[in-house]
Design brief:
Layout lengths: L1 H21 L7 E3 L3 E7 L9 E10 L5 E7 L6 E5 L5 E2 L8 E5 L2 E6 L6 E5 L9 E13 L4 E13 L7 H13 L2 E2 L4 E6 L2 E7 L11 E4 L12 E4 L3 E7 L8 E9 L2 E9 L13 H21 L7 H12 L5 H31 L13 H18 L9 H5 L3 H14 L8 H8 L4 H24 L1 H5 L7 H28 L1 H26 L6 H17 L7 H6 L6 E2 L2 H9 L4 E6 L4 H11 L2 H9 L3 E6 L5 H9 L7 E5 L7 E2 L6 H5 L5
Membrane topology: Multi-pass membrane protein
Protein name: Protein-disulfide reductase DsbD family protein
Main location: membrane
């Protein structure tokens, strides 16, 4: 009966689609069909000229009904799209999310029985005037089925875009982030397949320590290669997954394209070439020790990266002050250990909390990474006020009041708060070892991922932890004296430099008006702290009024910069040394032209990024070497958290910036360069 069912579906679909085309529905932004509700949605209805915008065909099946994937399987038809576009506007092929499987009468169907959204990229031509209307129309023919019957339907959809500033609302951004996350990510690594003895084996590169779902499945896009209804085995073999199933009798293509599902609504777009694939025992599975090994390696890398963060100008003064508190010699062994543990607890708590927030946001479909909060100008203002307050405190303008609960805890509460403060201020920094470690954390199971973030906190707290538990180290600290007050004033200098850097970031991220407002509220903060310091010198307490005024200054400062944006066009034009803004389309174009390409992802709030740019990338030696080898340079500015860029960074197993990639002509995979660069390293990159 399998052939009969397939034949009936085919006849009904062909006749029904022909009849449906004769009576098109009236165009609208959304069409409610008998069994599918479709709506055409734009990521922004005001795309900038010369840019691209993502459109989603938001589709909701009625209960008991399903639509079809681009390869429907043994029965059914994929949707057919007919676009009517303004002159010069082009549209890509649709990108589908990972489908589900439905077996009916021994037929394997690849379907969607829950809400889904195929995505297309609309390219807007350059040179269009602001306010230019871009009417977009779409006619869709599709087949919708239940368990017993199939019905062909059509939809005529329309949306009118207007050329504008390209700004996307927060609500639309969150929705499209979720839709993008459901679309399989391209796997750039080479995959291989082999047909032998009636079976097909597909070897897909995949890190040994990365998690993969127990029900992993390969959905073929290339038709006629795989017997869809036959079971599949997905076996881990070192740094690859091997998929094995029955091949069709007519299988003979030299390339195979498909989607490997690795988790719930998570997949990789795979392109495999014909070759040789060794057989793997079907009983093999992803051993737990591989995950633990990957976790241990990532934990060690994060710990070492956190240790290096202690020399950053925003963290070093805080660590030094804590060390000096031990140098005073007023703590016994037990109290010193308690302070060290409390400080470590504060650091680890913040790192794990930020890691948990990143994992939760990513699970909800938002493309975020380490230091994601710095993509919001309000967070920059709060950090600016905090660093200025710390600078004034180190300079002796006022003393930070000690709450009663800190006194009751014997100093442990203050140490915990100091550790939390050090970890929070350190978030803009990403040093060596951190990038790969935190990138690995994003593909590990969540308990292992949180352990990696805890490793980062432990590394950051390690110097003070060692001072608290090793008396010999404390004995090497200088003897207390008046020099400590002078040294404390000196420590305010790197903290002032941090404040200046944050003010610069605020201007770059939110514009010069936001920078001016930030400086005004900083002045207000300084005045309040000066008054508080005068009260303290008179023998009075810090005061509840002063505390409320500080809180008010912080709230007003964050509110004043909310929603402000810099001149995007000016930022795009100001690329150094002939470099171009990054886009995946431009990268593909340069690679097809046979040029080597150096791509680097940066952010104004990333200290490591800026050091690398001034010390290695934007030097005369590097420019001369790149010019001699015709190397194109693309810059990905992630300051404001571009979600498309975030997904590209994530695809290269990184949790944030910096990320440095070098593409050699004729080689698919890029070289991932270290996070600390030098002109000699960049000049030595192979041109071929």
């Amino acid at each position: 009966m399998r052939w009969f069912h397939y034949a009936m579906v085919t006849v009904v679909a062909v006749l029904g689609m022909g009849a449906a085309q004769a009576e098109p529905a009236a165009p609208d932004s959304g069409v409610v069909g008998r069994h599918l509700t479709m709506t055409l949605v734009a990521e922004t209805e005001h795309p900038a000229t010369g840019s691209s915008v993502t459109l989603a065909l938001a589709t909701v099946p009625q209960p008991g009904w399903h639509g079809y994937w681009e390869n429907p399987g043994d029965a059914g038809f994929p949707a057919k799209f007919e676009w009517t576009l303004p002159k010069g506007v082009t549209v890509s092929d649709p990108s589908y999310p990972v489908p589900g499987r439905l077996v009916v009468a021994d037929l394997m169907n690849y379907v969607f029985d829950k809400p889904y959204a195929p995505l297309v990229t609309l390219s807007v031509p350059a040179g269009l005037a602001q306010g230019t209307a871009l009417p977009v129309k779409l006619h869709v023919n599709y087949l919708v089925c239940s368990a017993t019957v199939c019905v062909p339907e059509t939809a005529d959809l329309a949306i009118t875009l207007t050329v504008g500033d390209g700004v996307t609302s927060a609500q639309a951004q969150a929705q499209f982030d979720a839709w993008h996350r459901a679309v399989p990510r391209p796997l750039n690594a080479k995959s291989v397949f082999q047909i032998a003895g009636g079976s097909i084996r597909i070897a897909i590169p995949y890190p040994a320590g990365a998690a993969v779902a127990k029900d992993a499945y390969f959905y073929p896009i290339t038709p006629g290669m795989i017997d869809y209804a036959k079971p599949q085995s997905v076996v881990r073999d070192g740094d690859r997954l091997v998929v094995e199933t029955k091949a069709t009798a007519a299988a003979g293509a030299t390339s195979l394209k498909g989607v490997l599902q690795i988790g719930a609504q998570q997949g990789l777009l795979v392109t495999a070439a014909a070759g040789s694939v060794a057989s793997v025992a079907s009983t093999a599975s992803a051993p737990a020790n591989n995950v633990w090994l990957a976790t241990a390696i990532a934990f060690a890398g994060a710990m070492l990266g956190g240790l290096i963060l202690n020399i950053m100008p925003c963290v070093f003064p805080i660590l030094s002050l804590k060390a000096l508190s031990l140098a005073r010699g007023h703590l016994d062994e037990r109290a010193a250990r308690h302070e060290a543990l409390a400080y470590t607890g504060g650091v680890v708590a913040v790192c794990v909390g930020l890691g948990a927030a990143i994992l939760a946001l990513r699970a909800g479909g938002t493309a975020v990474g380490w230091a994601f909060q710095l993509q919001d100008p309000r967070a920059i203002v709060l950090l600016l006020l905090l660093t200025v307050a710390l600078s004034l405190n180190l300079g002796g303008l006022f003393e930070i009041p000690t709450p009663a609960f800190v006194n009751r805890s014997g100093g442990a509460g203050g140490a915990f708060a100091t550790g939390a403060l050090a970890a929070f201020i350190a978030t803009p920094c990403t040093g060596p070892f951190m990038g790969a470690a935190l990138g690995a954390a994003l593909v590990l199971p969540w308990p292992a991922a949180l352990a990696v973030f805890a490793g980062l906190g432990l590394g950051l707290a390690l110097p003070f932890l060692a001072l608290g538990f090793v008396p010999a180290l404390r004995k090497r600290l200088p003897k207390p004296g008046m020099w400590m007050e002078t040294f404390r004033r000196i420590l305010s200098v790197p903290m002032w430099l941090t404040a200046i850097a944050l003010a610069w970031v605020l201007g770059k991220e939110a514009g010069v008006d936001a920078l001016a407002l930030g400086l005004v509220v900083t002045l207000a903060l300084a005045i309040v702290l000066w008054v508080a310091g005068q009260r303290q010198r008179a023998g009075l307490g810090f005061g509840v009024v002063m505390t409320l005024l500080l809180l008010g200054v912080a709230i007003v400062g964050a509110w004043s910069v909310s929603g402000r944006h810099p001149d995007r066009a000016a930022n795009t034009a100001a690329q150094p040394g002939g470099a171009e803004p990054f886009s995946e389309a431009r990268l593909d174009g340069l690679r097809k032209a046979g040029r080597p390409v150096f791509v680097y992802f940066t952010a104004d709030w990333c200290l490591t990024c800026k050091v690398n740019e001034k010390a290695a990338i934007e030097t005369d030696a590097t420019r001369a070497a790149f010019a001699a080898h015709n190397v194109a340079v693309l810059i990905g500015d992630w300051t404001n958290g571009d979600p498309v860029m975030g997904r590209f960074i994530e695809a290269h197993n990184r949790a944030g910036v910096p990320l440095y990639l070098y593409y050699r002509p004729g080689i698919d995979q890029p070289m991932v360069l270290p996070q600390v660069l030098s002109p000699a390293l960049l000049a030595s990159l192979p041109a071929k």
